[in-house]
Design goal:
Layout (H helix, E strand, L loop, with lengths): L1 E5 L11 E6 L22 H12 L6
């Protein structure tokens, strides 16, 4: 899966993040949502937490 995000600094007073590209394909494993139970995996992993910290502190996007 590929997701491109945009958080423009100019004319974006609320620091909105826009999805500019979403490719819902992956060659290494199946992305069928029926194979995953998301309710059991709600908690953020440390990797996701670090990603959020990066976007908030380095790119100035609000969470």
């Amino acid at each position: 899966m590929q997701i491109n995000l945009l958080c423009p600094e100019k004319d974006n007073p609320h620091k909105l993040v826009y999805i500019t590209k979403l490719v819902n394909e992956h060659k290494n494993h199946d992305l069928d949502q029926a194979h995953y139970n998301f309710q059991e995996n709600i908690a953020f992993t440390m990797e996701i937490t670090e990603d959020v910290k990066f976007f908030v502190t380095k790119i100035n996007c609000s969470p």
